[in-house]
Amino acid sequence: MKLTDEQVRYVADLANLRLTEDETRRMSHDLGEILTYVEELDELDTTSVDPMAQVLFDADEVATLREDRPRDTLSNAEALANASLSSAGYYKVPKVIER
Amino acid sequence: MSWNMEIPKLSVRSVRDGLASKAFSASELTHAALDFVQAENAKTNAYLTLAEDRALAAAAHVDSMVARGEPLGDLAGVPLGVKDVIVTRGVRTTCGSRILEHYVPPYDATAVTRLEDAGAILLGKLNCDEFAMGSSTENSAFGPVRNPLAPDRVPGGSSGGSAAAVAQGTAVVSLGSDTGGSIRQPASFCGVVGVCPTYGRVSRYGLVAFASSLDHIGPFGRNVEDAATVLKVMAGNDEMDSTSAFAPVDDYQALMKHSVRGLKLGLPKEYFEGLGAETADVIRTAARRLEELGCHIEEVSLPHTKYALSCYYIIATAEASANLARYDGVRYTTREPAETLSDMYRETRGAGFGAEVKRRIMLGTYVLSAGYYDAYYLKAQRVRSLVAQDFTRAFARVDALLAPVSPFPAFKLGEKIDDPLTMYLSDIYTLTGSLAGVPCMSVPCGLSPEGLPVGLQILARHFDEATMFRVAWNYEQAR
């Protein structure tokens, strides 16, 4: 399994990750090596095996529904305290929609 | 009393006895413990942030309870360190990452709340691999942790700071997180007890998510009883985490002292294929000791063990790629300037994440991407079923499994950091239990020929931590 730099750039784009040229080359090598290793899973016939998405235990269907009652939440100031940039009670981001 | 001599030897029990007999106050102990951290931390780099004010306020509260003669919690006055992937209100929580260098959470994790409600004293936050991704703590953006027993070696990872602090004595107990071995492997490398409980046993509310179907919070201690006490205090359903289990929490401290006579213990043969003689000998000696205590030892087979590594790295990275999408330069303090929103995301994440985190986000994004989902992610989920079924079959025959934690003891700093696949291979014996969601732990069981600690891994049935602790405690007493 070999990943081209072009494929790496495509995946980095999906992941919203800027990679330098050096990182891109390194990533092609590392991902290629790991993907080659995991090809061993093809040795197993899993056609009749159900996928396991979660470790599940017996529980009442509504067991995780909690009582519907009001309680304190974070204040606007607390919620925004870690914002990179905020004003007037909102997060601020670069302009998304062009006029 | 000379605190610096005494602090590294304290246990949950000796702190309780000391407070009860008024040999010391919680405030005296906390001052001494904070001083000890200040003096000793540079040797390991285990602590990233100290929480002096919070610790001293909590200690004063314990002292006021002592003064009023009120009953004390199970962890009253006990110095506690918490891995920096578990959020603490008002105390910086970095996840070992530049991208969260200045993040100060507005709430506490449920596990931390429960330990503090039982009287534990949070001293500070402990170093780890960035977002818990790594096996050596060399992936921290704030410098590696050194193994207190061998400063040129790693403490293991990703909860390396949590293991090192307990081994060094800068905490009596600590919290770590385990996704594929991140508690058991550092416990083994540092010669302390580390527990990864059943999936869902401890609330993850406030645990920064890495791989949600695999993440656990668990304790470290210098003995089995301390770790069991911490788990008992924080275990149990939490309405803030819908994946936390409803199963009742057993009285571990009482049940673990029952005899192990008649218990059936399995040695999974696949774990000894290719294992170096040094480690295999130490594990087999431990099994013989348990046989002398009246356990029946038999060989069992977990035939899909060799596939666990591939299975794990597909599932864990896929989940991580989704979980880490939230670090977008908007909500979590750090932002790189850019003209457009999408460039801002890319620049912030490119500058804020380290090499291993980027590698895993990339791998996870790739295996989930169009055309590859079935071949990688769905395939890995099917193999995960097979790995879990291996355990179901084994636990139909035996009450617990005995296994190595790691193929080798603590390695040297820098030895494996440049080769991701070799680093991943250090987790081969811990990944299976993580995938199956069974409780598992590492208990010290001897030394390698170079004099480095080796851990014995004990795995038990879902929610049967009591049997796991029973094997561990009886072994610890008899060693």
Provide a descriptive summary of the structure in words:
The complex is a heterodimer of chains A (99) and B (479). Chain A is mainly alpha-helical and 99 residues long. Chain A has a domain at 5-42: Histone, subunit A, CATH 1.10.20. Chain A has helices at 5-14, 21-38, 76-80; strands spanning 86-87, 90-91. The radius of gyration of chain A is 23 Å and the shape is flat. By secondary structure, chain B is of the alpha/beta class. Chain B has a domain at 3-255: Amidase signature (AS) domain (Amidase signature (AS) enzymes). Chain B has helices at 3-6, 12-20, 26-40, 52-67, 110-117, 160-168, 184-190, 224-234, 252-255, 277-292, 308-323, 341-352, 355-368, 373-397, 420-424, 431-436, 465-478; strands spanning 47-50, 79-83, 121-126, 173-178, 193-196, 216-221, 264-268, 296-300, 400-404, 440-447, 453-460. In chain B, strand 7 (264-268), helix 10 (277-292) and strand 8 (296-300) form a beta-alpha-beta unit. Chain B is globular. The chains are: A mainly alpha (99), B alpha/beta (479). At the A-B interface, helix 1 and helix 2 of A face helix 11, helix 12, helix 13, helix 14 and helix 15 of B.
Please supply descriptive tags for the structure shown above:
A: mainly alpha, Histone, subunit A, 2 strands, 4% strand, flat, B: 479 residues, alpha/beta, Amidase signature (AS) enzymes, 11 strands, globular
